[in-house]
Write a structure and sequence with these properties.
Length: about 160
Amino acid sequence: MEIERKFLIKQIPADLASYPFHHIEQAYLNTDPVVRVRKSDEDYYMTYKGKGMLARDESNLPLNKEAYYHLRAKADGNIISKRRYLIPLVNPGFKEGFPAPPDDYTLTIELDVFDPPFSPLVLAEVEFGSKDAAEAFVPPEWFGDEVTFQREYHNATLSQMKFDS
């Protein structure tokens, strides 16, 4: 089960280059249900995602390089390329009344900086262990509008965008 919230951001962190990152390329074989292939650095996967916006079933299967490129050639729409920075969020905020996590509790912000033709799009995703935690999460100040429930910011939708040549 994938439980995540997605946000635009107000400002890219000044120290972004200090965080680890992965270069991700992904292609969609189908968008309903979502079936995608992904290359993350030198790792390859096929992913199935069920219905849902905040929480949905997700299954990953490993692929080899040859299988990835074979399936990538069959993709519908745009191939998405982005750099995903992994930013620790130590002692994240939660709404009043939510049980306080341990002092050393850390979430990971996955900050996606998209390559053309999607740049300058930048999205922050945060995954949670429960829907209650996701719903109680208070985003950091540098996050902008929440877009979890806006389909136009989901990668499967981006893969189907049309661009002028």
